Amino acid sequence: MSLDAMVGLIVLTIVLSIAGVWAIEATNKRDYQIAAEQQRTMSEAFSKYLKDNYAVVLASAGPTTPVQVTVAMLQNTNYLPAGFSSTNSFGQTLVGLARKPNPNQLEAIVVTTGGQAIPELGIRAIAEHLGGPGGFISKLQAGVIEGVRGGWQVTLSNYGVNPGAGHTASALFLMDGDLANDYLYRNAVPGHPEYNRMNTHFDVGGNNINNAGAITASGNVTTTSDVAARNVTATGETTTGGWFRTKGDTGWYSEKWGGGIYQSDPSFVRIVNDKGLATGGTISAGQVISTGTISSSGRLITQEYVSVGGQGVEGQLCGDVTLMAKSSNGTLLSCENVNGTMKWAATKAKFSEYISGSCQGPGNWVVKQCFLADLSWATCSLSGATAVGQDELGYITRQATGWYLNASRASWAGVFFWQCQR
Q: At 329, which helix (H) or strand (E)?
């Protein structure tokens, strides 16, 4: 044989070997894909069976004693066609298992048992073809089913089986009779609101929840930091250990009665819509300013002077007997009813009097001691006495309303002694 022939034979052998390897790999890939499609069909049929027979399966399943559903059972109930094979191309038997981890909840899987162990790359390839529910039993962890790319994990002892490494599985999870898996869906699934519902506490590990719309809670909302919002509505009491602060010309407002308290300038805290401020207690202030009437049903008490700013003219008309004023020279005026006409009049100060002696001398004169309060006209009442009309100096005169000291003729104030006849 020539050298050229030998070289040609060697190259042909190598090409045939490579082609053989490629053919085997292609066949294996096809076998893996076919096994995945067969397992997916079995899983879909098992899911429908569980939905239709949920109560029966739930009553029979236990936490570690699952209900077993075979291909033959699914064929007999028309969930699989009669010609569907119960084994895959590797001789492994497909079986459905459903256990009850919690009341009213089923957790289900489809798993392969027996037959030829599929190589590690093969079981991972089959799981990839199955997508999210796909899983496999690896020789690295023979006691668990590992989800594709580590997406989930199931302990085989919970299902009472241990097929060994080289087998595949699909995970199905059932809640309240509806088929679901153990994922929180990003999008709504018509007729399945539970797919978007958490079944346990949601912990985001200190990360933010951004771009949320309305947040509705039936329990407390607790934070150790600030809460920023445009409006906060509470149907119960609002309590704080610090200040309630407003950043604008606002404050507290009564939605029902239209009143409240606010501040719109640096000087005054104001009442909304000029509502009244009522209290049965004490109002303490450094200064009280009123642009209207101040009314009191009790006494007005002061520890200092009373400043009367209103001025009147003695003898001119006034409208209310309760009024007091001052004249231009400071005389205190009161509004009096004089013969049916209201006029300003100078206030008369009464004498303080008492009898300081008994009847003395001829004519039975009695000494009266009167203390003069000021130099205005003043009354000195003489009950039971007979008036003499006027004393000889003209200091005392008798008028309709009583006895008066004519202060215009007196140049002093103090004690004044006079006599009257009994």
A: none
**Helix, strand, coil proportions of the chain in percent (round to 5)?**
20, 25, 55
Locate 132 and state its tokens.
């999210």
Q: Which residues pair with 112 in a beta bridge?
A: 94
Q: Which H or E run contains 35? A: helix 3-52
pLDDT digits (tens, 9 = 90+) for 240-275: 888 888 889 999 999 999 999 999 999 999 999 999
Tokens encoding 284: 């303490």
Which of 44, 189, 39, 24 lies closest to 128, judged by CA?
Answer: 39
Encode pLDDT of 119-135 as tens digits: 999 899 999 999 888 99
C-beta separation of 422 from 366 below 8 A: yes
Instruction: Write the pLDDT tens digit of every residue in 45-71.
Output: 999 898 888 888 988 999 999 999 999
Q: In the chain, what's the furthest Cα-to-Cα distance? A: 192
List the one residue out of 317, 346, 313 whose CA is nearest residue 332.
346
